From TrEMBL:
Listed name of the protein: GNAT family N-acetyltransferase
Lineage of producing organism: Bacteria, Pseudomonadati, Pseudomonadota, Alphaproteobacteria, Hyphomicrobiales
Pfam families: Acetyltransf_1 (PF00583)
Positions of the N-acetyltransferase domain: 15-155
Molecular-function GO terms, alphabetical: acyltransferase activity, transferring groups other than amino-acyl groups
Amino acid sequence: MTRAAGLCLLLGGPGTCDTIIDLARQFWAEAGESFTRRQEDALRTLMVDASLGRAWLAQYRNEPAGFAVALYRHSIGYGGRVALLDDLYVVEKLRGRGLGRRMLRAITEDLEAFGILQVHALAPRHSAAADLYESEGFLCSRLQLLERPFDQDLPDPT
């Protein structure tokens, strides 16, 4: 748990799970997407299986203020465990107060103290989130992220 100037960051788990799920629904709704049962189950699994990563609940003055999720992977290139900051969300009415920046700093400190060697972050290009990450020392990767959904047919190579 991290506390600073009204902000409290709690590690996700059974006691914070339902609140984090509610915030995840808000996050996805703001993005114009639905939060599916499959996504909810994946988030619940993360909060009971520490080998997968971490979730955090942010509270500001004892009220839910946001959440974040980092997923782990073992990297040969980096020589150990790295994390992907998959979600970082601050509720709309609390934006503009520096909470996202304070959350990000506390999360990266927590991950480094846990032995994570590097943190990667996903954000839409030219977004406020990308600007925040870059202002906190995240660099644009030379690598391109490619996705291959398994629920779609492959294009015909001919």
